[in-house]
Amino acid sequence: MGDQVTLPLGLFSNIFWIVLGIVLIVKAIIIVREQTAVIVERLGKFNRVANSGFGLIIPFIDRKTATVNLRVQQLDVEIETKTKDDVFVHLQVSVQYKISRDKIKEAYYSLDNPRNQIASYVFDDVRAEVPKLELDDVFAKKEDIAIAVQQNIAESMQEYGYVIIKALITDINPDAKVKESMNRINAAKREKEAALEEGEAKKIKIIKEAEAEAESKRLAGEGIAQQRLEIVRGFKESVEDFKRSMDNVTHEEIMQFVLMTQYFDTIKDIGSNSKNSAILMPHSPGGMKDFQDQVIQGTFIGNQMKDFSTARKSGEK
User: Which of 71, 101, 103, 164 is least crowded, fewest Cβ atoms below 10 Å from its Cβ?
Assistant: First the structure.
C-alpha cells in the first residue's frame, strides 16, 4: 500500500476563511450603471437608493432588490373610440415618460405595473376628449388632444414619481369605408374647384374676345367715319371747283352731275368685282331722274328741319 498524504486541519480552515472572505467581498460590492439606480433593502425593508458608480452593501443583510431605469421611455397605446359624428376611429398614442430622481422609491414601491397603469390613464383621457370632436376636427386638433392627455396624465402620475414628458398622437385611422367616403368627398371638392377655375378661365377668355371685338369695331367705325368724312370733303372741293369753273350753274345741276358720276362709277365697280356671277339691276333715264328728285327732296326736308331747329333754339333764348 502506498503512503497516504495527510493535510493539516489548519490548512482547511485557512482555505475556508479565504473563500468566505472572497464571497463576502463580492457580495458587498455593487456597480451601478449610468442612468440607472439600485434599490437596496436591509432585512426586507427599504434602506437606500444607490446611484450610478461604485457602492458597498452588507452581505446577507443588505440586498440589491431592483434596478430602476432613469432614461426616457416610450409607451405606445392603441385606442379605439367614437367621435362626435358617430365615426369609430383607431388612434395610436405614444407617451414619453421617465422616473424622477427625487422619487425613485415612490416610483418603485407605489405602482405594481406602471406601464399598464399609464395606458389606463391614456385610454380614459382620450375617450373623454375625442367624443367631443367630429372626425375632421380630430385630424385638425390632434395636437390639442395630445396636450390635454399629457396634462391629465402628468397630474395623475406626478405623485408616483413619474414625469410625463410628451404625449403624441402618431396615427389616426378611421374605418376603411369612412376613409373611402372622405376620399370621394375630397375628390369631388377638387373637381368642383377645377370646374370653377375652368369656367373662370372661359369667362375671362370670352370677355377678352368681346373686348377685342368691340375695340376692333370701334376702330373700324372710326375708319369708316374718317373715310366718309374724306369723301364728303372731296365732294365739297369738287363741287366748289366745278362751280368756279362754270358760270350760271345751279346747285341742282351740280348735284345731278355728281350723282350721275357716282352712279356710273358704282356700276363700273360692280362689273369689275363680279367675276363669274351676273347681277341684274333696273336702269333707265327715268329712274335716274326719280333718284335725283328723292335726293333733292331729302335735302330740302333736311334743310327745313335744320332751319326749324335753329329758330326754336333762338326762340328759347
Answer: 71
